[in-house]
Amino acid sequence: MSETKLFQLEQNESYALIEWNSNQLVQENYEELEAVIRNLFKKEYTNIILNAAQVNEIDGYGVSAIRKGTKICTNENGLLVVVNKKDEIVTRLDAANIDGLTLMNTVQEGIDAIYLNDLENDFGSEENDDEFSGEEFSDYSDDY
């Protein structure tokens, strides 16, 4: 009996894509997801797409793994995008109220969301760099 891998991993410079090969994300396999997300974070990936399109069963352990992954990514201004369009899964994840969770119907929508998030982060940091209040030089007013 051959054992199939629970996931396949693709990585590029902008994001990592986890292709979840199981139709379940439950107590028996959630640790695999947590481990791959931790390893990607160690490699400085803050944008991760979890293609869970095959998943039709998720329990509290699976939800918890997604919650942890979302927190890891959003703490670094990244995104964890979960791809699944099955009503039962979407409803379960919505009910979990995971702060910062991004749910999409397709991997391409997830890629677009990541690029848009990166643009927003870049634009936001440029706005902060361009702001000048004059306070930086207020201590030098006595010099003149």
UniProtKB/TrEMBL annotation:
SUPFAM superfamilies: SpoIIaa-like (SSF52091). Residues 124-144 are annotated as: Disordered. Residues 24-109 form the STAS domain. This is Anti-anti-sigma factor. It comes from Sandaracinomonas limnophila.
